[in-house]
Amino acid sequence: MKNHSIICALQNPAAYPHPVADIRLFETHISWVLLTGEFVYKIKKPVDFGFLDFSTLEKRHFYCEEELRLNRRLAPQLYLAVVPVTGSPEMPRLGGSGTPLEYAVKMRQFDPRQTFDELLERGALSVSLMEQTAGTLAEFHQRIAVSTPNDDFGTPDAIWNPVNENFIQVDKCINSQSFMAAIRETSHHLHQWSQTQHEKLRAVFAQRKKDGFVRECHGDLHLRNIVLWHDQVVPFDGIEFSPQLRWIDVMSELAFLLMDLDDHQQQTLSRPLLNRYLSLCGDYGGLATLRYYQVYRAMVRAKVAGLRLSQLDDASKIAQNQQQIHNYIQLADKYTRPDRVRLIITHGLSGSGKSYLSRELARHFDVIHLRSDVERKRLFGLSELTHSESGLNTGIYANDATRATYQRLYTLADICLHSGFSVLVDATFLQYEQRTRFFSLAQQLACPFVILDCQADENILRQRVKQREQQGTDASEANLRVLEKQLTEQQPLTDEENKYALHIDTVEEIDVAVLAHRLNNIQQ
Fold it and tell me: Rg (Cα) of the chain, in Å, rounded?
C-alpha cells in the first residue's frame, strides 16, 4: 500500500528539511503521527468510517487545513502549517514543490508529561490551573463563530439524534457482553431519563440556539487534549472531521471536561472550574442543560469503551474495559439523581471573609457561587477587576444600583435552584429586606435555607479592607469609608433569622470540609 511505504520512508531523517535526532511513529485509527524532536507531523489515513471520510487525497488535504484553522484558534503556538509530502513513495520529503503525495499537519512537539491527564496522575493538576482553564474557555467561547438561525446545528433534533444513537450503541455492547442485569437496567433508565429531559428542555435548547450559545467549539475537550505549555493552558486536537460534533452548545463543551474530572473523582477540581467559568461568562441559564450534557458525555465514553471491547482478546484488558463502561454508566446515573438543593446566603461586613469562605466552600460542596461584587459590575458592563471609579453611594454603588444587584442575585439564584443546583449567594446582606426576599424564595421552593454569618473584630475588618484595596486584585471596591458606613447602618440578624444562621468567626481557622459536610446534611 502506497501510504504505508511513504510512512516507512518518512522514518528516515533525510526526509526532513530540519535536523532530526530521533524519529518515533505513533498510530491511531485515523492518523500516523511522526515525532521528530522539535516538530510533529500528522498524516491522515485514507479511511472512511461514515462519520469521518479521509478516503481521497483532496479530502485529506481539506481536513488538514481544517485541523490547522480550527486548532490555531486555541493553540497557534502548537499548530504551525499544512505541508505537502513530495518526492516519491520510496524517497518522500516533507515540503518541496513537487506533486503532493500526501499532506501533513506540522505541529510543535511538546512534553507528553504536561497533558492534564498526566498532571492529574502526578497530583500536579491544581485548582489554580482549573481556574486558568475556565478563563481560557470563557474567552474562547465568547469569540468563536455563532451558528445561524438557518442551520441545523444545536436544534432540539440535532441534539437528540447523537444522544439516542449513542444509547443504541451502548445497549448493543452491554447486551452482547457478560454485564450484570443491573447495568443494563441502569442504561435503560438513563435512556428514558434523557428522552424525558430532552422533551422538558426542548424550548430551552431552541432558545439557547436563538441566543447564540451554539458555536463552533473545540468538540473534544477532555483532560488528555489539554497541555500546559510554558505555563499556559492550551487545548489542542479539536474535532475537524465533523461539523456536527463541534457546532454545539458551549455548555456541552464544558460538560465533557467536568465529566472527565468527575470520572477521576476530582470534584474539588471540577467545582472551581464550573464556578469560575460561570463567573466569567455569566451563563447561569446554561445550568438547565448541564446534567443532560454530562450524562451524554459519560455515555459517549461508555460507548467508546464498548467499541474497544470487540477488538480485545486479553482477559485482563477486557475486564478493565468492562469496568470502565460500568464506571461511566454509574457516573451518568449519579448525574440524574442530584442532592436536594439548598439556598445559602452570607451575612457580614466588608472584610469579614465572606468571599474567601464562599470560594473555599464551593470547592468542597456542590454549590453555585454567586458573588455580588462580580454581578454588580456585570450589570454595568465592567469586568471583575475593572475599577468603576465610583464614590460612596454613587455610580455602581448608588442605592438604585445596589437594589438592581440584589435583584440580579435573586434572579440568578432562582435560575440555579430551578435547574437543580444549590446556591451560595456571597453578599453583605446587611439589610433585613435583602435577606427576607431570599428566605421567601427558599420557602417557595421548599428547600433548606442557611445564613453564613461571618464575623471578625472591627480592627481586623479595617486591616483586611485596607490590604485588599492596596492589592487591587479583587472585584470588591469596598474601602474604609464603605466599612464605616456599614458599621453604622447595618441591621443585625433577628431572633428568627438566627434560627437559620451558622455563626463563623473568620479570624479562627475554619475546617471547610467539616462545614461543607454540615451544610450538606441540613434538611430543615
Answer: 26
- Name the H helices within 266-419: 267-281, 287-309, 315-335, 354-364, 372-379, 399-418
State the Cα–Cα distance between residues 412 and 480, nearest whole angstrom: 29
Does residue 296 carry a pLDDT above 90? yes
What distance in Å separates the CA atoms of residue 280 and residue 135, rounded to the nearest whole number? Answer: 7
Three-state DSSP at 234 gives: strand
Residues with Cβ < 8 Å from 304, sequence gap 6 or more? none
Q: Is the dihedral angle over the CA atoms 456, 458, 460, 463 positive or is it negative?
A: positive
DSSP string, 131-147: HHHHHHHHHHHHHS-B-
Distance CA 160, CA 252 (A): 13
Task: Average the pLDDT over each of 193-207, 385-399, 405-419 and give the range with the smallest value.
Answer: 385-399
Do 440 and 369 meet the contact criterion of CB atoms below 8 Å apart?
no
Which ranges constitute the DSSP H helices of 127-249?
127-143, 156-176, 181-210, 243-246
Closest residue by Cα to residue 212 from 148, 256, 157: 148
Cβ count near 399 (within 10 Å):
9
- Cell 439516542 -> residue: 164
Of 120-124, 175-179, 379-383, 470-474, highest mean pLDDT: 120-124
DSSP 493: P
List the Cα angle 118/104/55 in 5-degree steps. Answer: 105
3-state secondary structure of 256: helix
Please give the pLDDT value at position 322.
86
The DSSP secondary-structure symbol of 492 reads: P
DSSP helix, strand, coil percent of the chain (3-state; round to 5): 55, 15, 30
Cα separations (Å) of 203 from 108, 200, 237, 283, 381?
44, 8, 32, 17, 28
Are 401 and 395 within 8 A, CB to CB? yes
Residue 154 CB: number of other CB atoms within 10 A? 24
Q: What is the pTM of this model?
A: 0.94
The packing angle between helices 354-364 and 512-521, to 10°, is 70
pLDDT band at 177 (very low <50, low <70, confident <90, very high): low
Mean pLDDT of 426-440: 97
* Environment class of 264 (CB within 10 Å of its CB; exposed 0-12, middle 13-18, buried 19+): middle
Residue 77 has pLDDT above 60, yes or no: yes
Sign for the pseudo-dihedral over CA of 98, 101, 106, 109: negative
Domains annotated on the chain, with CATH? 2-109 (3.30.200), 116-335 (3.90.1200.10), 343-521 (3.40.50.300)
pLDDT digits (tens, 9 = 90+) for 95-104: 988 999 999 9
Average pLDDT, the chain: 94
Tens digits of residue pLDDT in 455-494: 999 889 999 988 887 777 677 767 888 888 889 999 999 9
Which of 479, 474, 485, 498 is closest to 358 using CA atoms? Answer: 474
Closest CA to 432 of 496, 375, 370: 496
